[in-house]
Design a protein that fits this description.
about 10% strand, alpha/beta, single chain, globular
């Protein structure tokens, strides 16, 4: 079955939510669980994911799109990528402590719980509560615990579960592996955002937007595997146009306010930070969710709007 046929076959918004979040926000890996670094990367694919470079007289900045969770067997390292990493004196991720589960837990309590508020079940229909009960049982979360969670957190946990059930692992995520390599080499790791900011992106959404995110995740969360595989196949092959059509265009059409919060606003902020980096000197390697580096609202497009030249490697 071709990629396009698989997309038409799956076609569910919940699948795109699960996969899109895995490609667009580093918090996905933090919620998924504490990673380990035991798995070795296999031989590089013939093409490899896309990479771009921004440079001036004394600065070189590489841009690389990541997937926050991957199947262990997914091949994505290339000689060109490794050369760029070796050249860089800094690694920039969405958040610098992508592997810090201890830091995530108090933030979940602060921004993900709704203690004293209306129980979640009172905000859902009978059918939605039945879907939630089934999903909670599958992911090992007591249904009583979801009553005090904000809708966004339950929706994200469902999306995480869909991804993990499909064989995707936080220990194999690109950001996690790149940070582990940087730590081993003594390369400083910086972040465009903090974990707290990423939690607040969801927490600050209006309740109805959070509920819609949860409803869409519950509706067809078990169908995410084929969509995830298709997305990763395009990413690993460096097919930016196909990835844009499958992922970003659909996110823009279906996500509504969530698209602006998770992609557009953050891309604009990062473009500004990168422009400031160019005022200095040296070589940096930037690795952020692949959804941020495709489409008209991508980081590259926003840099070009500021007069910065971005070149595909």
């Amino acid at each position: 079955m071709t990629i396009i046929n698989r997309i038409k076959h799956v076609g569910s918004l919940a699948a795109r939510l699960a996969a899109g979040t895995a490609l667009g926000v580093g918090l996905f890996a933090a919620v998924a669980g504490t990673p380990s670094f035991a798995m070795a990367q296999e031989a590089a694919p013939p093409q490899g994911p896309a990479m771009w470079v921004v440079s001036d007289a004394d600065s070189t900045i590489y841009l690389f799109g990541t997937v926050h969770l991957l199947k262990p067997e997914t091949q994505w390292r290339t000689a060109e990528l490794d050369a760029a990493l070796a050249e860089a004196t800094e690694l920039w991720l969405e958040v610098p402590n992508v592997d810090d589960q201890a830091a995530a837990m108090p933030l979940i309590q602060q921004y993900g719980l709704n203690i004293g508020g209306a129980p979640l079940s009172s905000l859902l229909t009978e059918e939605e509560n039945a879907q939630l009960a089934a999903a909670a049982a599958a992911i090992g979360v007591p249904i009583a615990a979801t009553e005090v969670m904000q809708p966004w957190l339950v929706g994200l946990q469902v999306s995480v579960a869909a991804t993990v059930r499909a064989g995707y692992d936080p220990a194999s995520g690109v950001d996690t592996r790149l940070k582990a390599s940087a730590d081993e080499a003594g390369t400083p790791v910086r972040g465009f955002e903090t974990l707290e900011q990423q939690f607040r992106f969801f927490h600050d959404l209006p309740q109805e937007v959070q509920l819609e995110f949860l409803r869409q995740s519950l509706a067809t969360w078990e169908e995410a595997d084929e969509m995830l595989d298709a997305m990763v196949e395009l990413w690993a092959a460096g097919d930016v146009e196909g990835f844009e059509a499958l992922v970003v265009d659909e996110m823009q059409a279906e996500w509504g306010q969530l698209y602006d919060v998770l992609l557009v606003d953050r891309n604009a902020d990062w473009a500004g930070q990168i422009q400031t980096m160019l005022e200095g000197s040296g070589t940096a390697f930037i690795a952020v969710g692949a959804a941020h580096l495709a489409g008209d609202d991508s980081v590259q497009s926003m840099l070009e709007d500021r007069g910065v030249t971005v070149t595909r490697r």
